[in-house]
Specification:
Number of strands: 12
Low-confidence stretches: none
Mean pLDDT: 89
Distance between the termini: 65 Å
Number of helices: 2
Shape: elongated
Radius of gyration: 24 Å
Strand content: 35-45%
Length: about 200
């Protein structure tokens, strides 16, 4: 039996190329940033007279009724091997995207680091379909559905500071709330996928 060395070398080369290709794909996927987000209501103690960033609420703590401010706390983690810049928190409805930038944002998350942000609960009331963060590459990273539903439910039970105001130019009523000076809010129409 005669061995065809050309065929043997070709097969060996194909096997080596396939293995190296698989290794490169694995390294590429491993090298990417890996973002995960937790969002939940966080209660911070305060005085009844304090001006608070969060919504003031009285909570039972043992036998005592104590004042707290309710905030939405985001914990953003990068468990990947590349840094990524986080630009803003976003809330998306069927028609628009609201981007919220706090004093902590934008921030570069190095590998295996995290950033915590506290935001007013009023941002998360309404008809949102998605909540998450936007990175510098324009990619949206959303919170998990279970957290989304829990957050929406908890925010809906808070005494939010949303009121009806008359639009000064158009004259119709709008629902609005006062944001604090440190937050920047941008409302953008959602792009139609058919155009």
């Amino acid at each position: 039996m005669e061995i065809d060395f050309k065929l043997l070398l070709s097969a060996w080369g194909a096997i080596i190329a396939t293995v190296l290709g698989i290794i490169k794909i694995y390294e590429f996927r491993k090298e990417k940033p890996k973002i995960s987000i937790d969002a939940e209501i966080f209660y911070s103690p305060c005085n009844k007279e304090d001006d608070t960033y969060g919504v003031k609420i009285e909570l039972q703590r043992g036998p005592d009724l104590l004042w707290h401010q309710a905030l939405v706390q985001f914990t953003i983690r990068n468990s990947g091997n590349k840094p990524i810049q986080v630009i803003s928190v976003f809330c998306e409805t069927a028609k628009q995207v609201t981007q919220i930038t706090t004093p902590e944002l934008p921030v570069v998350l190095d590998p295996n680091t995290q950033q915590q942000l506290n935001l007013q609960p009023e941002f998360f009331s309404g008809e949102q379909k998605k909540i998450g963060i936007l990175d510098a590459l324009g990619e949206k990273h959303t919170i998990k559905l279970k957290q989304f539903n829990a957050l929406k439910s908890e925010v809906g039970n808070l005494p939010l500071r949303i009121k009806n105001y008359k639009h000064k130019e158009k004259g119709h009523e709008v629902e609005a709330f006062q944001t604090f000076a440190q937050d920047r809010v941008h409302v953008l129409p959602l792009k139609d996928k058919n155009t």
